[in-house]
Amino acid sequence: MSLRLHVGCGSVYLDGYVNIDLEVPGYSFLASERPDLVAVNRTTVDRYYKHVETRDSLEQGTLNANACVVDRYAAIDALPYGPDSVDEILSVQVLEHVDWKRVPGVLRHWHSLLRPGGIAHVDVPDFEETARQLLAQPDEPSKDWYYRLIYGSQKNAHAYHRTGFSPARLERLLREAGFREVRHVRNTIHFYPVAIAEGLK
Question: For the whole model, what pTM was predicted?
Answer without folding.
Answer: 0.93
